[in-house]
Amino acid sequence: MALDATFYAFVSLILFLALIAYFKVPAMIAGALDSRADKISNELAEAKRLREEAQGLVAEYQRKRKDAEAEAASIVAAAQREAEMLTAEAKQKTEEYVARRTALSEQKIKQAESDAINAVRAAAVDLAISAAEKVLVAKADSGAQEALFKQAIGEVKSRLN
């Protein structure tokens, strides 16, 4: 048997594999691979948990958004009802105000008519008195005037007492 380079390479390979087995390198490699696989498995589980949590948060925010939209719709509806109520109330108050002002204006017109009629009557009475005075002055003499004056004073005294 000849000892050539192939034999020495084979013996070196056997010694290398024996050293690797002696120092438990395959177990260390398997342990490292197992720990790496466990780490990857844990990361996948964590990613799955985070994904489920994110989906839960998305569902919760969508529900909150729907609730907020419903609340906003109810607020808008309430505001519309209140605006309609305020409009109706303002319309009613305006109509009442117009009715009161119309009644007040009619009352003032009636009062003005009454004042005008009284003023015309007073002017007519004054005119009649002055006409009667002129007629009496023209027809009566001074003795008759004194008698009428005394009679008028007597009537005034009797009405005042």
TrEMBL record:
- On the tree of life, the source organism's domain of life is Bacteria
Q: Report the transmembrane regions from the record.
A: 6-23
Its GO CC terms are: plasma membrane; proton-transporting ATP synthase complex
Quote any Pfam family the record assigns. ATP-synt_B
Q: Which UniProt keywords apply?
A: ATP synthesis, Cell membrane, CF(0), Coiled coil, Hydrogen ion transport, Ion transport, Membrane, Transmembrane, Transmembrane helix, Transport
Subcellular localization, as worded in the UniProt entry: Cell inner membrane; Cell membrane
Membrane topology is:
Single-pass membrane protein
- Using the UniProt record, give the first listed, main subcellular location: membrane
Q: Name one GO molecular function term.
A: proton-transporting ATPase activity, rotational mechanism
InterPro entries, per the entry: ATP_synth_b/b'su_bac/chlpt, ATP_synth_F0_bsu_bac, ATP_synthase_B_chain
| HAMAP family noted in UniProt | ATP_synth_b_bprime
Q: What does this protein do?
A: Component of the F(0) channel, it forms part of the peripheral stalk, linking F(1) to F(0). The b'-subunit is a diverged and duplicated form of b found in plants and photosynthetic bacteria. F(1)F(0) ATP synthase produces ATP from ADP in the presence of a proton or sodium gradient. F-type ATPases consist of two structural domains, F(1) containing the extramembraneous catalytic core and F(0) containing the membrane proton channel, linked together by a central stalk and a peripheral stalk. During catalysis, ATP synthesis in the catalytic domain of F(1) is coupled via a rotary mechanism of the central stalk subunits to proton translocation.
Binding partners and assembly: F-type ATPases have 2 components, F(1) - the catalytic core - and F(0) - the membrane proton channel. F(1) has five subunits: alpha(3), beta(3), gamma(1), delta(1), epsilon(1). F(0) has three main subunits: a(1), b(2) and c(10-14). The alpha and beta chains form an alternating ring which encloses part of the gamma chain. F(1) is attached to F(0) by a central stalk formed by the gamma and epsilon chains, while a peripheral stalk is formed by the delta and b chains. F-type ATPases have 2 components, F(1) - the catalytic core - and F(0) - the membrane proton channel. F(1) has five subunits: alpha(3), beta(3), gamma(1), delta(1), epsilon(1). F(0) has four main subunits: a(1), b(2) and c(10-14). The alpha and beta chains form an alternating ring which encloses part of the gamma chain. F(1) is attached to F(0) by a central stalk formed by the gamma and epsilon chains, while a peripheral stalk is formed by the delta and b chains.
UniProt similarity note: Belongs to the ATPase B chain family.
Q: What is this protein called?
A: ATP synthase subunit b
Source species, please?
Sinorhizobium sojae CCBAU 05684
